[in-house]
Design a protein that fits this description.
This is Glycosyltransferase family 2 protein. The chain is α/β, with parallel strands linked by helices and 300 residues long. Helix content is 41%, strand content 20%.
Length: 300
C-alpha cells in the first residue's frame, strides 16, 4: 500500500518542518508543490526527503488537482495536508492500523480537524469537531473547482477515523488579517458566481450524502447566500458566538470568532457590493468588474 502526501507551499519555512515530521511514519513519499517561494521552504522540504516541484499559482483547487497529475500510477492513497497543519500521533496510528483493512469500495476517509488561534485551541462556536476528507483513494478523488473553501470530493463510500489534524498557524495577527483579506476576494467570487454563473459551479453541497461538509455547503449556498449582505455576517457571528457558545473560548477565542465569524464575512459582503456597484456605474460585465475591483481574472 503506497500513500503519497501532497503539501502545497509558498514561503512556509515557519511551518513546513513540523508538517513533514508528522508525515514521516505515514507517507511513502511527500510531494511538495511550491509556488516559487523566496524563503527556505525548498531547502527544508528537501532536507526532510520530500520531492519538490514548482508550479505557478492560480488557486488552491487548480494547484492541488495539477499535483494529482504528477503522481505515479502505483499510488494507492493520497493525503492532502496544508503546510501549517500536522497529524496527531493518534491519527498516524489509526492510518497504519485501519487503512490496510479497508475494502476496495471505500473511496475516502474523514477525520477531525482541530483549530488553534493565537496559541489557543478553539473548542466552541461550531469550529470543532470539523470533519474533513483529506485521505482518498488515488484516481477516485479530486478537489472542488472553487476559488475558496474547497473540499476533496469522492463519489463512493467513505469512513470516519477518530484521529485529528491540527491546524496551528504560527504567523502574526497582521499576517492573518492580510491573508483573510485575500480570502475575502476569493469567497466574493464564489458568491458572485452563484448569482451570475460565469464559471462552472462545482460543489459538495448534497444533503443526501449526509457528510458534514456537504450539509454545511448546502446551507451556505441555499440559505446563507440568499440572506441580505451584511445582515448574514452578523447572523452567523451571533450563531457562533452566542448559540454555539463561542464566548467560552476566552479572549483569544473572542478575537477569532469576531474576526473570522463576523469581520471576514462582512468584508466578503462589502466586496460583493463593490463589484455590483462597479457593474452598475460602468456597465461592465461581472468578470470585468471583478478584475477591476478585486484584481483577479476569472472566466479566461
Amino acid at each position: 500500500m503506497k500513500l503519497i502526501a501532497i503539501v502545497l507551499t509558498f514561503n512556509e519555512s515557519l511551518h513546513l518542518a513540523r508538517c513533514l515530521a508528522s508525515l514521516k511514519d505515514v507517507a511513502a513519499a511527500v510531494l511538495v508543490v511550491d509556488c516559487f517561494s523566496s524563503d527556505d521552504t525548498l531547502d527544508i522540504a528537501r532536507a526532510h526527503g520530500a520531492l519538490v516541484i514548482q508550479n505557478a499559482w492560480v488557486n488552491h483547487a487548480t494547484q492541488f488537482n495539477w499535483a494529482l497529475t504528477q503522481l505515479g500510477p502505483d499510488t494507492d492513497w493520497v493525503l492532502r495536508l496544508d503546510a501549517d497543519e500536522y497529524l496527531t500521533p493518534e491519527l498516524t496510528t489509526e492510518i497504519h492500523s485501519r487503512l490496510p483493512m479497508l475494502g476496495p469500495e471505500i473511496d475516502g476517509i474523514y477525520c477531525n480537524r482541530r483549530m488553534t488561534f493565537q496559541g489557543c485551541q478553539i473548542r466552541h462556536g461550531g469550529v470543532f469537531p470539523i470533519q474533513v476528507l483529506r485521505l482518498f483513494r488515488y484516481g477516485r478523488g479530486e478537489c472542488e473547482n472553487r476559488w475558496m473553501d474547497e473540499h476533496i470530493k469522492v463519489a463512493g463510500p467513505t469512513v470516519k477515523f477518530d484521529g485529528e489534524i491540527i491546524d496551528d498557524n504560527l504567523n502574526s495577527l497582521t499576517w492573518w488579517t492580510e491573508k483573510h483579506n485575500r480570502y475575502a476576494n476569493r469567497e466574493a467570487i464564489d458568491l458572485l458566481n452563484l448569482e451570475y454563473g460565469f464559471m462552472p459551479h462545482d460543489s459538495v453541497a448534497d444533503l443526501h450524502n449526509r457528510s458534514q461538509a456537504g450539509m454545511k455547503r448546502w446551507i451556505k449556498e441555499r440559505v446563507y447566500a440568499r440572506l441580505p449582505g451584511g445582515f448574514r455576517a452578523f447572523a452567523y457571528f451571533f450563531y457562533r458566538y452566542v448559540l454555539r457558545l463561542g464566548f467560552l473560548d476566552g479572549q483569544a477565542g473572542t478575537a477569532f470568532h469576531f474576526l473570522q465569524g463576523f469581520w471576514y464575512r462582512y468584508l466578503v459582503d462589502a466586496k460583493v457590493a463593490e463589484v455590483k456597484r462597479y457593474m452598475r456605474d460602468s456597465g461592465a460585465t461581472v468578470t470585468e468588474a471583478i478584475e477591476k475591483t478585486l484584481d483577479i481574472r476569472v472566466g479566461h
